[in-house]
Amino acid sequence: MGAERKDIDDLPRNPANYTALSPLGFLDRAALVHPTRKSLIHGSVSYTWRQTYRRCRQLASALTKRSVTFGSTVAVISPNIPALFEAHFGIPMSGAVLNTVNIRLNAETIAFLLGHSQSDVIMVDQESYSLAENALKIMADKSKGKFKPPTLIVIGDQNCDPKLLQYALEKGAIEYEKFLESGDPDFEWKPPEDEWHSIALGYTSGTTASPKGVVLHHRGAYLMALSNAIVWGMTEGAVYLWTLPMFHCNGGCFPWTLAERGVTAKGVYTAIANLGVTHFCAAPVVLNSIVNTPQDETTLPLPRLVHVMTAGAAPPPSVLLRNVTRGFK
Q1: Which CATH class, in words, describes the domain spanning 34-218?
Q2: What pLDDT shows up at residue 262?
Q3: Helices (runs of H) and strands (runs of E) counted in the chain
Q4: Which residue, 63, 171, 175, 228, is most buried by CB atoms nearer than 10 A?
Q5: What percent of the chain is modeled with pLDDT above 90?
Q6: Which residue spans of the chain are classified as CATH 3.40.50.980?
Q7: Positive or negative, the Cα torsion across 142, 143, 145, 149?
Q8: Do residues 71 and 94 lie in contact, with contact meaning Cβ atoms separated by under 8 Å?
Q9: How many Cβ atoms from other residues are within 10 Å of residue 306's Cβ?
Q10: DSSP string across 80-118
């Protein structure tokens, strides 16, 4: 075997010449450079980058106080709501790994992936609480008396039936905002020592067998987040509409790129008109609904050029053409 090859100067790594790549630093910078700019809008709720950064640090602090840190996994069962966006920063800031769970899966499948991921904490929105409850019951029944229930945090939403939240609290779940209050908004989180450390864990839907897990490291999330902005030409001031679920491959890493949110085709047009949306992702079925929206629910002609990224099954050429003629690129 030949001699070990060394760099010409063989300098060791140190803080002056090396830092592990991680998308967590993007939030730190956003709060520093654009503290009062809107970071997220969800119905009547909105936050600035400074507020989002403080809330994420509170989440990280609250988790570490419960010994949830490096080596731990936190599952989130939720649609696109502010808490899920905050989880993409707050959970890895604690050192733990984020596991976003598809809310369209059945309880049996979710029970499998919660057990496989060994999630220590489960964050669940109030409308998905019964799904999480059924999954945990399945896990308990299969454990033969050895089941250790994870910490359960329920995320309230003022747009939903308050009875669902009350039911979860009566069952012993911790309300998300109360959980945040136990954390320090000035928590001094530490970036990963190694960019190879895991930041997120995702699973397939398990249509052919048990779900398969896929691990994303900090370096991969950092590069993907930057690529999103560069490849799509997302310049400063871009406004992103959350049509892509964050439980699908962490929303294509867009939580670490920037944030806004919307749902129905009518909601997409309304957000374009009222919130200055410039970019959004859409599956072919969403593109189809956009071009088939009744005229009185649209905002046409569009007030600006709106960029659309689609993935999954290939959209029919006719759907693409009709979107282009409406002003989408």
Answers
A1: alpha beta
A2: 38
A3: 12, 12
A4: 63
A5: 48
A6: 224-325
A7: negative
A8: no
A9: 20
A10: S-HHHHHHHHHHHHTT-EEEEE-TTS-HHHHHHHHHHHT
